[in-house]
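Entry: Glutamate--cysteine ligase
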Amino acid sequence: MARDTTDQTPVTSVAELTAYLASGSKPKEKFRIGTEHEKFAFFKADNSPVPYFGDASIQALLNGMAERNGWEPIMDEGNVIGLAEPSGNGAISLEPGGQFELSGAPLENLHQTCKESNQHLAVLREIAEPLGIRFLGIGGSPKWSFAETPRMPKSRYAIMTRYMPKVGSKGLDMMYRTCTIQVNLDFSSEEDMRRKMQVSLKLQPLATALFASSPFTEGKPNGLLSWRGDIWRDTDNQRSGLLPTAFKPDFGFSDYVEWALDVPMYFVVRGGHYHDCTHVTFRQFMNGALKGEIAEWQPTMGDWTNHLSTLFPDVRLKRFLEMRGADGGPWRRICALPAFWVGLLYDDEALSAAEELTRDWGYEEVLALRDAVPAKALAAEFRSRSLFDVAREVLTISRNGLKRRNRLNGDGIDESQFLAPLDEVLAKRATLAEDMLSLYRGRWNESVEPVFADYQY
C-alpha cells in the first residue's frame, strides 16, 4: 500500500464496516487484474544493499522515477516514500528494507499486465543504471544480515518494527528480508467472494511451492526452498495465516469484519502524524479506547481502510481479494502468478472445477500442507499424493480457464502463454529454489554472489 488513507468519514457501526467490503462487488465485465511485485535493490559493484539516503540511493531512484514518469511523490515526515500515478492507476512503494514495489494499475487482461511490468522495469533500469543500481528478483534476501539491511524512513514501519518481536519470532525478517509477487482480483457478490476466498486459501500452499525461490540466508543455504513461506508461519499469527473462519460454509463479509475487529491495530494517522495504537484492537477503538490519548479519537473509514491493509492472511479481503502466497521471482514470474490465479478464478468453469477439487479440503490438513511446503515445496505430500500431481491438475484447470477467456494479443495468442514458467517447473520437477541450489553446488562454487547476476532485473 503506497499511501495510507485519510478518509475522514466517521464510523458509527460495525454494519458500515461490512458494507465497505461488500461495496467492492462489481459485474463480471468490470473485473480487473492488479499485480504487485517487489524486488531487492543492490549495487552491482559489490552486491551490497542500497540505502535510503545519498546520491546513489532509494531516495534518488524515487526522485528519478517521479521526474521521468510525472508521478506524484508520497511524503512521510518530509521524506519521499512512494509515488502515485496522478489518476490513481498504479503506485510505487517501499517495503521496510528498501524492497522496491510496483502496485500495478487495474487492467483488463494479462497481456496488459505483462506490458506494464516490462515498461516499469525498463524505466527503472534507465534511472538505476547511472547510479550503479540493479534489482534482484527472488523471494528472500540471500546475503545481507538483518543488521546490514537498510531501514526506510516510513512511519508505519517504525511502529511495526517495535511491535513485531512481541508477537512472533520472524516478523522482522518478513518485513526487511522478503519479496513477493501478488495479484488483486475482483468478486461479483458475497457468494462469489466466498467461493474465490475458499478456493484460493486452500491453494495458497501450492502457489508457495510453485514459486519457491528463497533457499539462501546470509550467504548460505537455509535448509528451505521457501524461506519466505516459513517466515510467515511465525510472523504474527493473530493477523496472518489461513484464517479458519473463512473455511465456514456460510463465510461472508461480516465474518471477516468480526475477525478484523479483534486484531490489534498498528496506528492511526492524524494530521500526517502516525500514532502507535498497537495496544488496542479496532473494536476497542470503536468503543472509545483512544479517548484522551489523541485529540481526534473517533474512528473513521480511513482508519478502517488502513487497518485492513495491516492484516496478513494468506488471502486478504479488502474490496477485492489479494493472493499473498508466492515468493518474488524473475520477470517472467511477474506475469505467471496473475495468470495462475486469473485462470482459476475468473472463468466460471475453472472456478467450479477448482472448487470441486478442493471442496472437502479441511482447515487442519491445509494447514499441515502449508507447514510442509517451505521445506519440501512440490515434493510435499497431500492425501498420499505428491503436490507435483496436484499441481498438474490445478495448472490444467488454470490453463483451460485462460483459454476460455480468449483474451488475445496482437499475434492472436491467448493468456495461457504466461503459465510457461510453471510448466517448466513441472517438466523439470524442480522449483526455482532447487535450480539455485544446484547452481550453488555446481557452477557457483558454493557462493551466493552469482545469484545477483543470474537473477537480476
